[in-house]
Amino acid sequence: MADIIKLLPDHVANQIAAGEVVQRPASVVKELLENAIDAQATEIKLIVKEAGKTLIHVIDNGFGMSETDARLSFERHATSKIQAAEDLFNLHTKGFRGEALASIAAIAHVELQTKKADTELGTRIKIEGSQITAQEVVTTPTGSSIAVKNLFYNIPARRNFLKSDTVELRHIIDEFQRVALAHADIGFVLYHNGNELFNLPQSNKRQRIVNILGGKTNEKLVPIEEDTDIVKINGFVGKPEFAKKSRNEQFFFVNNRFIKSPYLHHAINAAFEGLLKEKMQPSYFIYLEVNPETIDINIHPTKTEIKFDDEHSLYAMLRATVKHSLGQFNIAPVLDFDRDANLDTPYDYKNKQGAIPKIQVDPSFNPFADEKKFSRNTATAPRYSNFKKESTEGWESLYVGLESSRNDTTRFSGESIEFESEEVTSSLFTNDEQRDALTYQLHRKYIVSSIKSGIVIIDQHRAHQRVLYEQLLKNITVSEAVSQQLLFPVTFTFTTSEIALLKEVKESLENIGFMFANITDDTIELSGIPSNISESELQIIIEQMLNDFQGEIPDTGFSQTDVLVKSLAKSMAIRTGKKLEVAEQEALVNNLFACKEPMVSPFQKTIFITLSVDDLDKKFI
User: Fold this and answer.
1) In which domain, by residue range, is 506 found?
2) H helices present in 272-366, as ranges
3) What is the pLDDT of residues 553-584, one digit of tens each?
4) If DSSP codes are grouped into helix, strand and coil, which group holds residue 282?
5) What is the pTM of this model?
6) Domain count, the chain
7) Which residues contact 503 (CB under 8 A, 6 or more apart)?
8) Domain boundary among 142, 172, 200
9) Signal peptide: which range, if any (predicted)?
10) Is the pLDDT of residue 350 over 60?
11) What are 373-392's pLDDT values in tens digits?
């Protein structure tokens, strides 16, 4: 039998490796930026077109490469960072496996220009699908310039899985921000389709955070710092009152490398225990410096997960450091309360005993005594003795003529009408017509209403979601939304990526009732809001909408509108625990069954269930 196992060609092996390393354009951005940092660059420029699908161009002023190094850099597992397996546990650089450029070159058109400082001419190499098509000597500045064009051009299936330009650009911005936050001493510039999105000069960590997230971020930050034999901790956490529902402002850096660690995240939440509202997330920018020999970076293809030797000690130190900083800057409550001097006992009364109060009783007071007796002695009379009691003599005169009056009202056309006396008794239930119109709120979560066949139990939150969803969708479609003008415009601060997202859906928001007075690089100013939104809930609703949009923005306009309306309906709907008046309950029930799809919420969840009389009868068998 012939052998069936064969070695894969190099270009196929590179494409398979690229599937692990290069998942989307943001992966290429991350690898190229890290290579520029390893080259000790002080200025890095990132140029992107069509969210990286057409072009990703990174220019740095690092030490560059020689002609031989430039050629070898595109070979698989060719690296200058490690020489033996033991070096994997003593890493001081970003890249070390030598697979990034080889994987990128296998699925794109790559052009590299590089020159060392001690040479007059540089090298230019062009590669298409792992095949070198040109190599020549060129005049170029010191450093490296690498352009990646037509990503996934030879793997159409992978290219079809890419999301819209807005989503892919947001992923690129996320990777750009992570690298920029880790290296405040390096200047970064980001261009997209010719527009400058970020221009970050060399600065310190605090200023870099402010430059990325906006000017008002500075007042939200609380510094943390701790130096031990195991770890050196520094960075910033956000004040509890500025916490958000999203996790967009949560960053861990270990030896200037961004990582994701649910275990360390739990330590931060433990430090904020009791300071945050339910479902709110703290902001933090924490930099950890540990001995490279105590961590393992090579456990994940994207190197965003790290294994620590002593996680328990790190957890305790991180939690204690954050908790100490919150208390030190008077963010967390402490037992050292300010004493009110008005409550102090005066010195003159310090050793005096409290006087026993005397109770005076009028022994001659008798509430059943005749009123005239008290009127004779005004000194001993109670304070209500001047009240004049109406005489009850002659009470029979009050009913004189009542019978004749009753007979007059019963005469009609000369004939008397006889009324049948009806005994009035209390009843547990009202008549059928009244009972059909009544609703009842159960546990401030469900609305119970009767129907002909039994009862219906409605989830008030989901029902309101459905009502709002169809109302908002109609308003966007026909542009007939009612907007309430604000006496004073309100301003909110957002990050650059969030502002770009708001601009993307600005037209749809205006059709709902939002009125934008001004939009800058980091703020929005609203002069009008929808009539069914209160100004106090406005920021929460916008932040929730942005959080929902972080995952996906579909390409088609209708799908974008659908995502937007679902997000707003979820944020604006009444919550479980809100007490509704009977009129509000009936209005919600009527509006629900006037919807086109009253059975399910916008998120395809059941809104109500019915119990027939037969079902109830079976419970009593």
Assistant:
1) 446-610
2) 311-328
3) 554 445 677 888 888 888 888 988 888 888 88
4) coil
5) 0.70
6) 3
7) 519
8) 200
9) none
10) yes
11) 545 555 444 554 445 555 56
